[in-house]
User: Fold this.
Amino acid sequence: MEDTIDLRWRKSSYSGNGGTDCVEVGDRANGVLVRDTKQAGTGPVLRFTPDAWSRFAEAVKSA
Assistant:
């Protein structure tokens, strides 16, 4: 399992409620990691390939 502790996480600019109602995204060379801010690093982490993340982001932008 890859290490997610030292990863730089960034929050969405659309975060509400003082930044606690959002997801955080971290970049890795082999993909994109996503986690729930409220879990404080203890919850599950979703892993996307770069291609899958790009398709997801484009779909969200066009919605």
Q: What stands out?
A: The longest strand covers residues 23-28. The chain is about 20% helix and 30% strand. The radius of gyration is 12 Å. The helical segments are 50-62.
